[in-house]
Structures
1.
Amino acid sequence: MNPLRQHRRVLTASLTGTAVEFYDFYVFATATALVFGELFFPKSSPEVQGIAKFMVFGLAFIARPIGAVAFGHFGDRVGRKATLVASLLLMGASTLLVAFLPGYADAGFFAPLLLCILRFGQGLGLGGEWGGAALLATENAPKGWESRFGAAPQLGAPLGFLAANGLFLLLGLWLSDADFLNWGWRVPFLASAVLVGIGLWVRLNIGETAQFREALDRAPPPAVPLWALLRDHGGAVLAGSAGVVACFALFYLSTAFALDIGTRQLGYPRETFLSLQLAANLFLALGIVIAAWLSDRTSAGRMILWGAVATIGVGLLFAPGLAGGTLAIFLTLATALFVMGFVYGPLGGWLTTLYPVPVRYSGVSVAFNAGGIVGGAVTPLVAKAMTDAGHGDAIGYLLVAAGALTVLGVSLARPAPAAG
């Protein structure tokens, strides 16, 4: 096949899958902020509703490392392509079924239980998604283009966010609050089936990565890739996990948490705050593109390090920015998401260098999703608890801590030997 055509297919497959991933994940995040408290925990106080719904939201981050281990095992033994198809199917089915869930008024205790099960299933599928997409891009990249190819999955994030946020915004404009609460919120979950279908079609039309085929020619894959990974590369797993904390913390504090605070405590109309986030999302895409381009000219680790230091600065301004007026909120969110581009865009090019090919799917997936527990599950939950306890002016220090962890992880990381 023509190399240019093959590169286009690879980049499209990487970008499309991650766009679906972020769409699926963010429709859940948006629904968590806007409706899940009232629908699934109606008998609780607003404060308890807030904690409960963010605990359900955080379940996916517990499931993601389990999915990373499971899909990483098959990704390292069977191949990248088949594993990516399976992860997308599980993720898509779990998201679609949320659209058909009954609320607490109809099913009682079983309603939040089913929500938890589907959220866990969503997390399992997501656990194997990003790592495989990053490998699909970087293991097919021309020399010197690793970070730019590796940024293709990351560019799926603003696209997925744009689709999810934009659809919720349109529904909010078209529907009354009662209709939105009764059935409108289900539409984005139904729409995910279309995106998953597109993602599957693209991925079924690509081949296996060259580096994986070459590794199989040299030696059979490890019987248990996770054991080989932890035995020989445990330090790289810890460093990689710390290195991704800042990107998760920036994203979920700037999106799900900020939306919840903006609409419930600050009193902004839902459509106004969604519009602010939609515009700020453009800066995430800009940050990813700039960081990926610079990474191939310097190094991916250096760009992430710069972004981590900037995350600390964002943390010092985050709480005052959210407490300001509309312009201050927009500038805060735009700055946070632009900085996220620097700690997220180069991740594909950086994490893949830490592990040799035979255990790379497991290494990248485990590190990415373990760091996601701290940055994406714990951080918004702690921020919500701090705000409810009257300490909202200190939530930015969570970003300071996340940035410091990422600085530590990148500083301690060392590339794996070139010949895995």
2.
Amino acid sequence: MPVYDYKCNEHGLFHELASMEQAAMPCACPSCGKLSARVIMIPPEVLAMSPARRQAMTKNEKAVHQPIFSTVDYREDQAQRRAHEAARKGCGCGDHTAHPDRSSLRQKAIYMADGSKVFPSQRPWMISH
């Protein structure tokens, strides 16, 4: 069973074991027996953290499940994509599918979470080696 934090108005913070079904219910204070509400404790270092650092930590937590492996080829490809998107927004015609960017046809390795490499091709019916 998990340990939850509760706060008594007279005696302060205390910890009690409770089932997950009982997590939202108040708990009796061990000193006075009054029912006390459950509180969520936030570490003080999180509250004092700069917004930029907090944002970076949030981004890192999200990246645990979707890592981006930064390589020279990846950064070059991203810069070309950004330049292409910027140029596309400027002309207003909206039809850039007839002339694909040649850099996207290059064979690239995608690194999987287990460390293996996958070489996707322009032909999805082909099996990569």
